[in-house]
Structure formats: C-alpha cells, structure tokens
C-alpha cells in the first residue's frame, strides 16, 4: 500500500461518518436536487479510487481484490437477479403487495419520484450510485480494510461505512444499507466480479425507485390506481 491509499481510505471513511451529522429537510429539498447531488457524490466516490489506484502505479484492470468481470457464474447470477427484479416490478405494476408497499415506501416518500421526469432522473442516479459506490466500497475500501483487518473485519467495516453513507434514510434505512453492504461484499468475494455487484446495486436502485413511483404516484391520484411506468 502507498500513502495515497491511506489518505484516500481516511477521506472516504470521514465522508461516510460525516453524513451522520448532516440533516436533510424534506420540506426544503427537491427530489431533482437530491438526485443531482447523488450523481455528483457517486462520480466523486467512483472517480477518486480509480484515480488513486492509477496514481499509485497499479493497472486499472487489477483494481480491487479481484478483476472486473469474474467468471461465467457472475453472468448467470446477473441474469437471474435482473430477471427476478423485472418480474417483481411487473407484479407490483399489476397491484401485487400494494398495501404493504405503500406503507413501507411512505417512510421514504420524500425521495421517491412522482413524475416521469423525476423517475428518469432517479434511474440516472441509480446507475451512477451503483458504479460509484461499488467502486469505492467494494472495490477500494474492502480491498484496503481486508488488508488491514482481515476479510471478516473488512466486510463489517465497509458495511458499517455503507450504512453511515445512507444516514438520510434514517435508522432503519441505515441498518438495511449496512446489511446490504455486507451482502454485496460477500457477493463480490464469492464471484470475483466487481461488475456483478455494480449491476446488483444499480438494478436494485432502479427497481426500488420504480416501485416507489408505482405505489406512491398512484396513491396520490384520485383513482388510487398504480402509476404506470413508461415502458
């Protein structure tokens, strides 16, 4: 490791922990503004580790603990995951689990898209977050923390930092994000594919925002019918 690695790890960790002290007022923030901030943050989180890796004289193709693509199993899992999410969104679009999902998603109503423009922006944010956060957390921080603390410790630490980075989702969202971070770390270690966990993360974000648009957009209409995705 180089001094650049130590500095970057400290900066990323501090950025995550600092989110615990940031308060976002839903009444004063717009969803499009929130999505724009998300894209900017994701670009920084993804770009800095790649730049630091290159500056340290290491090839980008060897970024992180494994390579980018992994083996053929990664392709299989990517296909199964994508198909499962697509089926889930289509079922929700047809009314499945509607009451439960409305209750669940109202806790995050202020970040869920209500118009097609917001939906499109949320998808851009989803893709950016999938790339940027996975490069930062699973690609760099897991590599760094595992070298310092061992693999189990690295998984826990990166999961906790991932939870802190999602403090805007309140305590329940932070807990789920921390657990998701550990699961994504395990998926990365098992598959050897950073691109796989990028896909898992980004596609889950897209599906989540899409479901929020369906159940909350429709819930605010006089008919009470689910909003239709522009598919």
Automatic annotation (TrEMBL):
Protein name: CPBP family intramembrane metalloprotease
Ranges for domain CAAX prenyl protease 2/Lysostaphin resistance protein A-like: 119-206
UniProt entry keywords in alphabetical sequence: Hydrolase, Membrane, Metalloprotease, Protease, Transmembrane, Transmembrane helix
Pfam families, A to Z: Rce1-like
InterPro entries named among the record's database cross-references: Rce1/LyrA-like_dom
Signal sequence bounds: none
GO BP terms, alphabetized: CAAX-box protein maturation; proteolysis
Segments passing through the bilayer: 6-25, 32-54, 74-92, 141-162, 174-200
Gene Ontology molecular-function annotations: endopeptidase activity; metallopeptidase activity
């Amino acid at each position: 490791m180089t001094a650049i690695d130590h500095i970057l790890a400290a900066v990323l960790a501090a950025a995550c922990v600092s989110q615990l002290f940031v308060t976002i007022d839903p009444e004063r923030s717009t969803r499009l503004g929130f999505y724009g901030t998300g894209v900017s943050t994701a670009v920084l989180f993804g770009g800095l580790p790649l730049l630091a890796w290159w500056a340290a004289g290491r090839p980008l193709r060897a970024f992180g603990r494994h390579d980018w693509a992994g083996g053929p199993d990664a392709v299989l899992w990517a296909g199964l995951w994508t198909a499962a999410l697509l089926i889930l969104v289509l079922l929700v679009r047809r009314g499945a689990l509607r009451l439960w999902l409305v209750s669940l998603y109202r806790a995050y109503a202020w970040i869920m898209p209500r118009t097609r423009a917001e939906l499109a922006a949320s998808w851009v944010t989803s893709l950016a977050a999938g790339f940027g956060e996975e490069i930062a957390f699973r690609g760099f921080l897991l590599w760094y923390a595992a070298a310092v603390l061992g693999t189990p410790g690295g998984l826990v630490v990166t999961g906790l930092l991932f939870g802190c980075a999602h403090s805007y989702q309140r305590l329940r969202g932070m807990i789920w994000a921390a657990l998701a971070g550990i699961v994504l770390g395990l998926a990365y270690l098992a598959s050897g594919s950073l691109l796989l966990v990028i896909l898992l993360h980004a596609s889950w974000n897209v599906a989540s925002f899409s479901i929020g648009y369906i159940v909350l957009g429709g819930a605010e209409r006089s008919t009470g019918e689910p909003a239709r995705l522009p598919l």
